Amino acid sequence: MDSRPDQKIAIARRFKALRRKALLSQSFLACIIGVCRQTVNKIEGRRVMPHRRTWDNFCNLETKHTQARTVHLTVHWQEKFDLDSEKHKKAT
Fold it and tell me: What are the structural domains of the chain?
């Protein structure tokens, strides 16, 4: 994994840059990396540092986005989210 920058501003910029490139809302990014929208908002607002697991999940997503430039990431994750939602509905 990528080492986590010590400065909140560097992390905030990376979160915002990925969201813009991948056309993700804060809510959708949060869902993908396993946190709530408020956490993404606080990270982008430089109020908190992400936990190690959150940072690892973010870096994995960032890497996948970089490697899959020809695939529209939002569609990929929307399909995954829809499948996960269906699994959750069946389980309840």
Answer: 8-91 (1.10.260.40)
